[in-house]
Design a protein that fits this description.
Elements: H1 2-59, E1 64-65, E2 70-73, E3 78-86, E4 94-105, E5 116-119, E6 125-127, E7 132-141, E8 146-156, E9 167-175
Parallel strand pairs: 2-9
Antiparallel strand pairs: 1-3, 3-7, 4-6, 4-8, 5-7, 8-9
Length: about 180
């Protein structure tokens, strides 16, 4: 009799283990599918934002388009953004470079060195009259929590230091 009981117990154990592996496999497949759709959705949204920036530049007569006034980024993480630049000069080619700098932190007079970092192609770029293009920038929140003032400038190549930039935009990076 004891042998019959032990055989029954081992069959039940095998059935439970098989069911557990099936449920685990289904769960992993579900999670993988969800992450794949999230990645596709994120890429689609970024492309839509890029197209919206370019459309905004084409319909308006602004030299610079930027999607937000405040960017909230978690500490030690990053965020991808796109900016749009349009040549609004009456004639000629616009040769320019992109310059970004963190000028100060809210509540502090000390210059915020390496608190917010930027990864982007500085240029030089060129645009024909009325041509517009979007450029990607990765913003890395590598510093302390707080709000930082950031200046984005489109500077014409060959311009002197006293000349104003072609376009300029200030925005906030809030590290949370």
């Amino acid at each position: 009799m004891t042998k019959k009981g032990s055989l029954s117990l081992s069959i039940q154990t095998i059935v439970i283990v098989v069911i557990a592996f099936v449920v685990l496999g289904l769960g992993l497949g579900f999670v993988r599918t969800q992450f794949k759709s999230i990645t596709e959705t994120s890429s689609s949204v970024q492309e839509q934002v890029r197209q919206q920036i370019l459309e905004d530049l084409r319909t308006g007569n602004r030299p610079l388009s930027f999607p937000a006034t405040t960017l909230n980024i978690e500490a030690k993480s990053s965020q991808d953004i796109a900016i749009g630049v349009k040549n609004t000069l009456s004639s000629g080619v616009l040769d320019f470079e992109i310059a970004i700098e963190t000028s100060r932190k809210q509540g502090s007079d000390v210059p915020p060195v390496d608190q917010v970092e930027y990864f982007y192609d500085k240029g030089p770029f060129n645009l024909r009259v009325t041509q517009a293009e979007a450029y990607n920038i990765k913003i890395l929140a590598s510093g302390d929590k707080g709000t930082y003032l950031v200046n984005l400038k489109i500077v014409q190549v060959g311009a002197s230091l006293n000349d104003p930039p072609y376009a300029e935009k200030s925005f906030f990076v809030n590290i949370i």
